[in-house]
Amino acid sequence: MISSNKKQKEPTVKLKLIALIDYMPDGMQIKLLRYLEKKLNLKVGEDLKVEKRGDNRRTCLISADYIIGKEAFSGYILDISAFGAFIETNVIFPAGQKLSMSFSLPNHQKPFNFKGQIVWSGSQGIGVKFDYLSPRQKEMLKTFSEQSEEIFEITS
Questions:
Q1: How many domains in the chain?
Q2: Is residue 155 part of a domain?
Q3: 64 and 136, same structural domain?
Q4: Which long-range contacts (CB under 8 A, 24 or more apart) does 108-113 make?
Q5: Same structural domain, 123 and 76
Q6: Please, is 1 exposed, middle or buried when counting C-beta atoms within 10 Å of its C-beta (0-12, 13-18, 19+)?
Q7: Which are the contacts of 128, defined by CB distance < 8 A and separation ≥ 6?
Q8: Alpha helix (H) ranges present in 24-151?
Q9: What confidence tens digit (pLDDT) does each residue in 36-61 have?
């Protein structure tokens, strides 16, 4: 049973969180959203409904080359799974647009070449869903996305 004291504090906590988030710059809000989505394995959809993600995503910084239409771009993959990736870009592309991309995973010399589709686009980047992966490619991406991230402490 929840105590009446706890019930009274919940709205206050929510209001404080909303006030803090509202005070944050846009970039920090996006980072917080991505962190919470990853930590909770949830995603807030365009309709603002919470959706359970079916895949593990790994935060990363992987250089990628991609072609949309007839134009070539370079950028960084900021998170990846066996189903897709988020590529940082300040160019807004329409959802549904096809692309080809190439990148190399750490500790793998041979580059991955994929075709995919932009499933969403925003001011920070694009969400790409891979069209087809070979079983080997899917396993390599799944293994990579499930590995723990290494955190290094810098000491002087």
A1: 2
A2: no
A3: yes
A4: 108/140, 112/137, 112/140, 112/141
A5: yes
A6: exposed
A7: 84, 85, 86, 87, 99, 101, 116, 117, 118, 119
A8: 26-40, 135-146
A9: 777 666 677 666 666 555 567 788 89
Query: How far, in Å, CA of 63 to CA of 59, rounded?
Result: 13
Task: Give just the sign of the alpha carbon dihedral 21, 26, 32, 34.
Answer: positive
How large is the greatest C-alpha to C-alpha distance in the chain, in angstroms? 62
What is the SS3 assignment for 148? coil
Q: What is the pLDDT of residue 68?
A: 94
Instruction: Tell me the two tokens of residue 55.
Output: 């895949």
pTM for the structure as a whole: 0.61
Q: What is the DSSP letter of 68?
A: E
Radius of gyration of the chain (CA): 19
Enclosing domain of residue 65: 58-146
